[in-house]
């Protein structure tokens, strides 16, 4: 309980600082901070934490469960939309359907999943969260997520831009370099400052979340988005988390995967919604409501697993 309270104080405090700054500072500041974290902060943090993580033989199960979570979330959302059409005789517009599906399948496993994993499970198991995000969530988002958006949306579909976004992603390059850099010996003072910079990147990521939440103003889609959040943050982690022991995944490693599966919708859902002319208001509502619901669901997953 103490660890959880400490986590809430740290997470809540940093997000609140970001929220206040987001209301006071120009809108260009979160954009610049996001660019700094994207190109510099996150890649260096990945390199640092990989040096302190344990890479067990089963770690490739993490991205496999990321794909399962994405596919299951999309399938359950599709079923819910069909059930609504059958029982209530109402069918959301295609852009709204796409936003509902994306909110149910794509989680914030990076900016939010990383600090929560580090705080609740520790650096030793961080590689599991990293593999889940970079080899599972990220390609799932810009692969299947973009395909769904292109199918339902009416935006300009430039597949080369999508492929380029994946190939030049600094986090993936940082991940690859970090794997090679793990066994390289560096002076203790360099190791110390690398670790400090990594934790500063984590803190700034939480501040950035607060800044972005400060810019979200739409709540009228809350009744609709409840279905997606229930699937993303309750059903998927409960169903897939219950089968983890069948693969020999228990203890802290299981907790990492469940926490990643239970993260609220990713900011990428809003980016995709804007790119492909989907239901932006619904995406915005899913982000804000999901972040608040996490405060309630997080202790449940820590207790169950």
Most strands sheet = none
Rounded average pLDDT = 87
Helix amount: over 70%
- The low-pLDDT segments are none
Say what oligomer this is.
single chain
Topology, number of strands: 0
Categorize the overall geometry: globular
Q: How would you sum up this structure in a few lines?
A:
This protein has 305 residues and is mainly α.
Model description:
This protein has 305 residues and is mainly α. Helices cover 77% and strands 0% of the residues. It has 13 helices and no strands. The protein has helices spanning 2-24, 28-51, 61-87, 94-105, 113-120, 126-152, 159-167, 170-181, 188-214, 222-243, 251-261, 268-275, 280-304. It is globular, with a radius of gyration of 19 Å. The mean pLDDT is 87.
Overview features:
305 residues; mainly alpha; 13 helices
SSE diagram, text form:
Layout: H1 2-24, H2 28-51, H3 61-87, H4 94-105, H5 113-120, H6 126-152, H7 159-167, H8 170-181, H9 188-214, H10 222-243, H11 251-261, H12 268-275, H13 280-304
Helix pairs in contact: 1-5, 1-9, 2-8, 2-9, 3-4, 3-6, 3-10, 4-6, 4-10, 4-13, 6-7, 6-11, 6-12, 10-11, 10-13, 12-13
């Amino acid at each position: 309980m103490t660890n959880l309270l400490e986590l809430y104080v740290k997470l809540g405090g940093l997000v609140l600082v970001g929220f206040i700054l987001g209301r006071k500072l120009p809108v260009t500041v979160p954009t610049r901070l996001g660019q700094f974290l994207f190109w510099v902060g996150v890649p260096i943090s990945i390199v640092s934490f990989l040096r302190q993580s344990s890479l067990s033989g089963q770690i490739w199960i993490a991205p496999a469960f990321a794909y399962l979570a994405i596919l299951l979330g999309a399938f359950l959302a599709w079923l819910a939309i069909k059930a609504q059409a059958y029982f209530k005789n109402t069918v959301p517009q295609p852009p709204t359907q796409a936003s509902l599906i994306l909110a149910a399948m794509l989680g914030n496993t990076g900016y939010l999943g990383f600090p929560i994993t580090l705080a609740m499970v520790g650096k030793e198991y961080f590689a599991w969260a990293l593999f889940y995000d970079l080899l599972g969530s990220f390609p799932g988002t810009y692969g299947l997520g973009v395909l769904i958006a292109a199918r339902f949306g009416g935006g300009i579909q430039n597949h080369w831009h999508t492929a380029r976004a994946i190939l030049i992603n600094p986090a993936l390059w940082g991940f690859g370099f970090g794997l090679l850099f793990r066994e390289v010996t560096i002076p203790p003072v360099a190791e110390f400052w690398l670790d400090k910079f990594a934790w500063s990147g984590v803190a700034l990521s939480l501040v950035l979340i607060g800044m972005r939440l400060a810019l979200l103003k739409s709540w009228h889609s809350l009744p609709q988005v409840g279905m997606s959040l229930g699937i993303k943050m309750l059903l998927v982690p409960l169903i897939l988390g219950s089968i983890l022991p069948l693969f020999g995944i228990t203890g802290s490693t299981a907790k990492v995967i469940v926490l990643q599966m239970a993260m609220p919708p990713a900011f990428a859902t809003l980016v995709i919604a804007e790119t492909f002319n989907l239901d932006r208001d619904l995406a915005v509502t899913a982000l804000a409501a999901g972040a608040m619901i996490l405060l309630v669901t997080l202790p449940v997953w820590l207790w169950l697993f």
